[in-house]
Amino acid sequence: RASREAIEQFIADTPTGVHPDLDKARRGRADAAAALEVLREALAKSQATYDGVVAEKRRIEAQLDKAQRDLTASADAENDSADGEPQGVSVEQVRERRRELEDELVELQAQRDTVNKGLTELASIDIRPLAVLLDAINEPGPVEYVPSERAHELADEFVDLTHRIGDLEKNLSEEGLDSGSAMRRLEEAKREVAAAQKAMERPVYTDDDIAELEAAHEEVLDAERKVSGLRKKAGEKALEEARAAEQVILDRIGFPTYASYVMGSSLMGIDAAAEARLEKAQHTLQAAQQHWNRVAQVIETNPEYRELLNRLEEVLLEATDLLGADPEDLEGALRAREVPKREVTEEELNEALAYQLEL
Q: What is the DSSP string of 118-154?
């Protein structure tokens, strides 16, 4: 069994993200430590408050005892003054002092009652909310998933926007100015230009490619020599496989056949058909771009259309960010999106614990 020191060293040496369970345990330990620190601070604060209240009670009781003694002495002095007014103190002065002492006594008794009430409240604090909060921090319940409210809102808005744009597109399509077909036409033209340009590129290959092709061609020649006699069918199969392997290499380095490789046709000049294809593709792209420019101008001059398209783009961006992907069935993915049910977080529990301890 591993020692505590070995376990602590393993935890310290293991970076975050390697073991999800270990990361979760780390967070739990950190949260528990935070809760414990809150408890310690609250305990020290409560102890200081309690000690201060007790000291205040003792001070008030001492003042109360003194006031009672002074009041008794004042009564004796009043009697003495009534008999002969000794030491130049009149009866009225003694009575005034007695009234002051009586008022002070009443005030001290009220302070004592307030302190006793505070001590009673401290002693009667219900710690059950603290226990519940600590249990929730240390042993959180299982995560429950529910449909994402925001995802459903985005799905509804996506459907509404596509329908409204579709209605506008339907009217524009009659004039050949809908953005959907214009964009598809433009993208297809761009792909054709890229393919035509690639067809005109000079093959790029290495000495290893040539060695591999020569070896594959030798396999083809050897298989051709063996296509005869009783094993003709087996030989034909071997020849077919050898030619297929050779063709894979030819396609990779840019030659249609082995003969073209030997003749070096791809290096001697530009294929006229490929050149014509590229020229045609470029003209098609130019026409598609001009058509798209006309469609874009229609969009710019139609505030409703432009606003709908802008909002649709915002919805698509938010939906993609929410889902973490760009699914083909966006509406279905949004409606199937689930999120953890809103629970009180551990940070909120710690804050609630601190608040309860301050009550």
A: HHHHHHT---HHHHHHHHHHHSPPPP-EEE-HHHHHH
Same domain, 20 and 45: yes
Whether the CB-CB separation of 284 and 192 falls below 8 Å is answered with yes
Instruction: Look up tokens 């009149």; give the residue.
Output: 90
Best mean pLDDT range from 49-53, 96-100, 129-133, 316-320? 316-320
Using left for φ > 0, alpha for ψ between -120 and 50, and beta otherwise, residue 324 falls in left
Give the domain-ending residue among 240, 269, 298.
Answer: 269
- Do 194 and 304 lie in a common domain? yes
The Cα 289–Cα 299 span in angstroms is 15
Which secondary structure element, helix H or strand E, spans residue 92, and what is its range? helix 91-123
- 128-138 and 20-84 helices, crossing angle to 10°: 160
**In which element (H, E) is residue 340 found?**
strand 338-340
Question: Which helix (H) or strand (E) element contains residue 64?
Answer: helix 20-84
pLDDT digits (tens, 9 = 90+) for 182-196: 888 889 999 999 988
Residue 111 lies in domain: 4-143+343-358
Higher pLDDT, 159 or 207: 159
Q: Within a 13 Å sphere around the CA of 324, how many CA atoms are in the beta-carbon half? A: 2
Residues 244 and 221 in one domain: yes
Model pTM? 0.36
132: tokens are: 């519940």
Q: How many domains would you assign to the chain?
A: 3
Query: Burial code of 309-341, b = ≥16 C-beta within 10 A, e = fewer?
Result: beebeebeebbeebbeeeeeebeebbeebeeee
